[in-house]
Amino acid sequence: MFSRVKKAIKAFRERRFVIIFSENEGEADLAIPAQEIVAESIIFAARVASGLLCLALPRAFIIKGTLAIIGIWIVGWVIEKLIKAVDRVIHKPPALTDEIIEGLGREDLIPMILYKAPRVEYEVSPEELEAMSDDGLRALLMELRDRQAEEIEWWPLAIIGGVAVLGVGAAAIALTARRE
């Protein structure tokens, strides 16, 4: 069996068609080197092997494709972060001012405190909050609001993302460039 595989690999490297027969499935497939695919070879393959067409892809093609997919993913991630940052700037929610907090009821204060507390490293249980008065809840929410850290600027993230995309592109070119 291995001698047949070696012959098939050798023929494939010489850019010849290879028929792969699967004894388990009882079918044969025609493998065509990627550089040899033209309309006539596709028609020939459809007549001879109606099954799967196997393509021998060069390593450089695989590396470029993988790096391109990674680059596209990184660009998409950076664009998503930029859109979210711009959206936060344009549609900035109203600040949690003292007047807004004073107007909130108990049913709004408790979920807001439970949401904000872990973000400012403050531990509180729902049972503790239920036992507090409305004024105590308002005071706690104001304290948590004052502890909240500033948001991260978006432009350093954009620069880092741009450098990463350029780095992936440079790596793709460097890895796939022909060596003389």
TrEMBL record:
Q: Among its keywords, does the record have Protein biosynthesis?
A: no
| One annotated GO molecular function | 3,4-dihydroxy-2-butanone-4-phosphate synthase activity
Q: Which residues cross the membrane?
A: 61-79, 154-177
Q: Which Pfam families match?
A: DHBP_synthase
What keywords does the record list, in alphabetical order?
Membrane, Transmembrane, Transmembrane helix
Swiss-Prot/TrEMBL GO biological process terms: riboflavin biosynthetic process
Full protein name: Uncharacterized protein
Organism equals marine sediment metagenome
